[in-house]
Amino acid sequence: MNKLLSTVLALFVTSVTASTVLAQDIKGDAKAGAGKIASCIGCHGIKGYQASFPEIYRVPMISGQNAKYISSALAAYQKGERKHPTMRGIAASMTEQDMADVAAHYEADGRKDVGTLGKAPDGNPKVAALVQKGACASCHGESFSKPIDPAYPKIAGQHADYLFVALKSYKTEGKATWGRSNAVMGGIAKQFSNAELKELAKYMASLPGELQTVPQAKFR
Fold first, then answer.
1. Is residue 19 included in any domain, yes or no?
2. pLDDT tens, position by position, 17-38
3. 3-state SS assignment for residue 180
4. Distance of CA 57 to the CA centre of its chain
5. Is residue 5 part of a domain?
6. What is the domain extent for residue 69?
7. Nearest of 150, 149, 134, 141 to residue 200 by alpha carbon
8. Count of domains in the chain?
9. What tens digit of pLDDT does each residue of 88-99 get?
10. Could you tell me the CATH number of the domain that includes residue 98?
């Protein structure tokens, strides 16, 4: 199973690389992006802010996230591959340049020195087995904060409730307003029960990471 999953992941990396060649030609401007985040700060610029759909959870920390991943996520919302209504509405109004600029802003906005990053679990055999089963490090890196490709997200230190909801969304099919279409993540998430996904999310959230919420001046 692990060998098959590794092969699938390798093929997916190749396809992602090929599909993002054009996007790489668009260079994000962090300063320009700072002027384009009015629709972002109301949620992602407030520490502890909670969304209420499809359940209550803290919105993800995106300051310090990989710019390429943020751009890819916004494009997925725009295309309908990610179906959250609010994010789809925001992404629908953005050009590729807007996405690149906003992504560059948030990547630069959250840079910090976090010291030694987390490693694969040592003391919890149950969680270690889940991480190995999902081959999480194959894409997100051993520290889960240094993905093998910047198109993949940093997940170490991310809110556990958000990670849980995000993982469950890859299992969701046939819903007009909820779910995410991603062949690899869908295949991985469907291997686990929701209880196991919650354990994975809790572990990833416990690791030291580079993600944070940077409040805008008006919210400080």
1. no
2. 444 444 457 999 999 999 999 9
3. strand
4. 15
5. no
6. 28-219
7. 134
8. 1
9. 999 999 999 999
10. 1.10.760.10
